[in-house]
Amino acid sequence: MPESTHPAQPAAQWVCTSEALEERGRAVAFDVLQYREPARAFALRFDGQVVAYLNRCAHVPTEMDWQEGEFLDRDKRYIMCSIHGAVYDPLTGRCVTGMCGRMGLTKLEVQEREGKVYWYPSRDTRPVFED
Ligand code: FES
Question: Where is the Rieske domain (predicted)?
């Protein structure tokens, strides 16, 4: 359910409960509009922080998870694209190695408070259903 903030700012969108995101565990997926086109996004917890990105590799714009919600490599140190193995820093989305070169993931603003995780839409990345 959207939560009103300031009229000039987009309403925060509820993503999931805090307990749904275990440390370096399975991500929670959610739908967004990127430049008015449907896109998938995901939130995960890494080193205690909740981060969120578009589920879109910087190499080829395709979804990256190995299985639904599984983005981390075997050692659970990096986000790794399942297609050609590009490796990203989980906290920044920057490319560490592989086919992503200087590109990185598209980071979404999220905040965790009072046991809930919220996504803050931007000018470019909007909710699928806006109030
Ligand atoms: S599509 Fe992700 S590394 Fe090629």
Answer: 14-119
Domain contains 4: no
Higher pLDDT, 11 or 79: 79
Distance 116 CA to ligand 1 centre (A): 31
How far apart are alpha carbons 68 and 85 in whole angstroms? Answer: 17
Give the residue numbers spanning the domain of 29: 23-108
Task: Identify the residues whose C-beta falls under 6 Å from ligand 1.
Answer: 57, 59-60, 62, 64, 81, 83-86, 98-99
101 alpha carbon – ligand 1 mean position (Å): 11
| CATH for 65 | 2.102.10.10
In a domain, 78, yes or no: yes
**Cβ–Cβ < 8 Å for 88, 64:** no
